[in-house]
Amino acid sequence: MRPVIRDVSLVLAHAPSFVRLGSKPLRELRRVDAPLGYLLPYLRDWDAACGYAPNQVFIGNVGVDDLAAHATPWHRHPVGGAQRFGPDGEIMPEHEFLGLLAACDGFDLLALDRDVADRARTALDTHPLIGRDSGRPAVPSGVAPDVIRERIEKHRAVPLLGVDGRLLGAMLPGHDEDDTLTGQVLMENLACKATAALALRHLLARPGAVAATDVRYVINCGEEAVGDRYQRGGGNVAKAVAEWAGCTRATGSDVKAFCCGPMHALMLAGAMVASGLHDDVVVLAGGSLAKLGMKFQGHLKHEMPIVEDVLAGFAAHVARDDGTSPVLRLDAVGRHEVGSGSAPLAVVKALYTEPLGRLGLTLLDVDRFSLELHNPEATEPAGSGNVPLNNYRTLASLAVVEKLIERADIGQFVRTRGMPGFSPTQGHIASAIPYLGHALRGLTKGTLTRTMFTGKGSLFLGRMTQLSDGISLIVERNG
Amino acid sequence: MGLEDQAAVKRVADEHGSDVVVLLGTPDAESTQTLAQTVVTGDPSYAGPLAGVPLGLPVLHVFEPEVKDQVPGDVYEAQVALMEMSLDRDAILAGLREARKTATT
Amino acid sequence: MELRGRKVIALGERDGVPGPALAECASKAGADVVLTLTACYV
């Protein structure tokens, strides 16, 4: 039984108040005299985040080729009439996201200010998919400001300050002496759970979607290592999200491989379906709070808004062949093997030439490649280059090596088979996944025949191997 | 260069003394210039352990002809050639020249 | 500059030439690689 990808959801949560809790801002703002005011002029409101062209591409309202033609800088040229909801998901405003966070907190560790909680509840209760009657946990009542302050002063709760410095709430640690359960760590984990849960509910709300109770296995490939001091990264976010979304007959587990996690997870989901182990598997991931504002210093230097102010999430449904949904080709998985080493040529051959060759195909048989899709407007101001462009050029150079194109045609190859980066710098999610919604449409209703998704993981950052990681997957038209 | 990496470079440079050379594989002019400056005159962002620490290490980029000439052809072909084709070699080497110029003024 | 006999710090980048690839070049050129790092800026 060959597996198909039935559907995907891609969501963003606008979280400007959480930018200060990102790993880089958190460290850098300690050296600043007035940290609140320091970032204030550079934090965007929801309208700006919603109208931001890359975000509209992320939720499927704007196509990748339209983005390539869109005036730059994107932060100065918003999309006219931008909508919160799109075919792939939504961009949730922060005041509502706070309610979602609180509703995902099963241990009452996140306390919101009373007014903040009331506003969040009112907003979230009218959400079309996760409203009051959707069966989700309620947004709990908020608490008085002096209670929040006491938690911060006496119980080491992490304060959550609004963009303007107002105290919105605080996150208690889960244990007094456990570095893996500090308020900061738990806030990161909760943000990951909440955005993954939002993505899953979007996926389950699609017309013809699998019933929540028919999902039998959930694989989480988010970045957060949920655990305790005896087992850092013990898991299992997948099950926590499945529980929240009402997938009562599901179990699950977490798959980790740095930013390559989603590709491993999709491959494993496909294998579960193909083997007959489970008919309906969901692969999902929430966002990385630690990566918010990662390049903020570059944005400040260039007097532009901090565009890394959104948390991302996705969920994909992998199922038995239904005759129409795009096929996940398990017979042509590209693998960066241990023996592939670190030589770029060997790595790209393992990821592209080898799997395509197994099907008698070449790079030119793939209509579109989805590689690293980090928004260059986030990375270039910080001197981190245009990551997608570099990766597409490397791929095109492989095509030159294989004598498929001339060296002079590298630019053309990149333009027609690549795309501009449009993903927030949310690591694992930026790694190929954001194009999946566009690809599924193109492979069913559009003109695409074959797409290829490649994730890369910087395993060396964990200091246990010098290797990096990579998996590529072919997703093609059914029939 | 990340702060942790700066600490490692400083420690290794201290441990090995005057024989140390830095070999870069950076993908663009800006990162090349920044990294070269960091190991020669110190961290230009003044954030890491190399802030204000002029290690004065010789810096080479793997794309430089004088490096390429010392590496066996088949090794260079396997390890570097693809990236040399895909990246803007001239801009990267210009970034390195700029950093060297800054270091001597 | 002659690499042979020198101590090399290989500073690679994920989207450029990775550290181990630089280290391979340096060691095949006769150098002693004393530190291999790869940076990832995303």
TL;DR?
Chain A has about 475 residues and is α/β, with parallel strands linked by helices.
Description:
The complex is a heterotrimer of chains A (479), B (105) and C (42). A six-stranded mixed beta sheet of chain A has the order 2-1-9-8-6-7, with helices on both faces. In chain A, strands 10, 11, 12, 13 and 14 form a five-stranded mixed beta sheet that branches. Chain A has a three-stranded antiparallel beta sheet with strand order 3-5-4, sandwiched between helices. In chain A, β6 (217-220), α10 (237-244) and β7 (251-254) form a beta-alpha-beta unit. By secondary structure, chain A is α/β, with parallel strands linked by helices. Chain A has a domain at 327-476: Peroxisomal Thiolase, Chain A, domain 1, CATH 3.40.47. Chain A has 17 helices and 14 strands. By secondary structure, chain B is mainly alpha-helical. Chain B has one domain (3-104). Chain B contains six helices and two strands. Chain C has 42 residues and is α+β, with helices and mostly antiparallel strands. Chain C has one domain (7-39). Chain C has one helix and two strands. Chain C has one helix at 19-28; strands at 7-13, 32-39. Chain C has a two-stranded parallel sheet. In chain C, α1 links the parallel β1 and β2. Chain C is elongated, with a radius of gyration of 10 Å. The model of chain C has no long low-confidence stretch (mean pLDDT 96). Chains in contact: A-B, A-C, B-C. Chain A binds chain C through residues 259, 294, 341-344, 372, 374, 379, 382, 384-385, 387, 390-391, 394, 425, 427, 430, 456, 458, 460-461, 466-468, and chain C through 14-21, 24, 36-38, 40-42. β1 of chain B pairs parallel with β1 (7-13) of chain C, so a sheet runs across the interface.
